[in-house]
Amino acid sequence: MIGFRNAGEARDRSRVRRLARAAVTVPLAAGALLAGGPGTAVGAPGTGPTAVVSMGDSYISGEGGRWMGNSLTNTGSRNGTDRGWVSGSTYDPAKVYGTTAGGCHRSDSAEVHSAGALADVAVNLACSGAVSQNVFRASNGGVSYKGEAPQADQLAAVAARNNVKVIALSIGGNDLGFADIIKDCALDFVIWNSYCYDDQQYGVDQKIDAVMADVGKSVDEIRAVMRTAGYSDSSYRIVLQSYPSPIPRGVENRHPQSDWSRLNTGGCPFWNRDSDWARDSLVPQIAHRIKGVAAAKGVQFLDLRDMLQGREVCAKASKPVSSTVPASARTSEWARWIDNNETQGLVQESMHPNHYGQLAAGRCLALAVAQPAGSATSCKNTAGGDHTGMFLTPAP
Predict the structure, then answer these.
(1) Dihedrals φ, ψ of 96, to 5°?
(2) Do residues 318 and 310 touch, judged by C-beta distance below 8 A?
(3) Start-end of H helices in 115-247
(4) What is the pLDDT of residues 114-151, one digit of tens each?
(5) CB-based burial of residue 28 (10 Å sphere; 0-12 exposed, 13-18 middle, 19+ buried)?
(6) Scanning 53, 169, 287, 298, which has the fewest C-beta atoms within 10 Å of its C-beta?
(7) How far apart are CA 354 and CA 343, in angstroms?
(8) Closest C-alpha to 109, from 56, 67, 65, 69
(9) DSSP state, 145?
(10) What are phi and psi of 138, to 5 degrees?
């Protein structure tokens, strides 16, 4: 029998069970929200309102946008971190996610909405938990998701009503099993007293070629829809993006791994070795492969691997929100923690960029669109600054 890490320390077994139950359901989400309306004019490309569209999964849908930093206070506004707070003990996630609350979680601060005036209309077709098949056209293997048609089929209607100029795509994380990786690594910290990186790396290596083929097919499906709608490939751009790490390197974690503060206080129950693997091996590996897909398909690449550097959950450079430390884009974490007690919001929001992180991602998209359409850039933050301090460097 495998025992707990510290046999002499009393354990709250119910808390462990709650984490295990929660971790099983942590999804990588995505969402779709029509902001400002899709326009009413129907015409050839170049007519109607200009539009910027986001497609794919949770890292672009706006999952986690309800939160401005993380606080241990479970009542009221949670020290100003809960944007879904109404009054007293009443909370309404629809204030942030609209009609997609509890589902696709398309937030009002999602990347496509936080990017500024890139176009007349911002359309979010991404959905929480989406995989590549949810992007493909139904006629070519696409699968409906959460009661919605495949995203490429939804894009066809958007392209007919608007003059689409930019399509931002984030896909592949769910295909690789991000949720399972998070679950297994957290449980290895809490229960099994073992590392997860070796088994997880093997699993990723077995899947990644097929996943990248589907990422490439997602681009092809978008191209096919746009060509059918009368667009030339040069009349708009596709921005294919990678993922940031929501947890810091072990040495950059403000909580020691030798006690339970990473679980009970920080919401980042991961070993240093696994954290280092996620930050410096897994996330760069995925970014490198997505960059290769972008180059092969002739689309723009936006590398987000360093977007949350120093702003991750439990990062030393950031502070938890409390009664004496207010929520702030300059000091608070930019990602949502794992709420192991399930007392705040939904588990599916865990390990996603929060409201501040989404403002930063929007700024990254705006900066990328200002670059040549075939460029490959990496977006980073300025230490101690807010989302306006994001800047680009050549992608590694």
Answers:
(1) -105, -45
(2) yes
(3) 151-161, 173-176, 178-187, 197-228
(4) 999 999 999 999 999 999 999 999 999 999 999 999 99
(5) buried
(6) 298
(7) 17
(8) 65
(9) B
(10) -60, -35
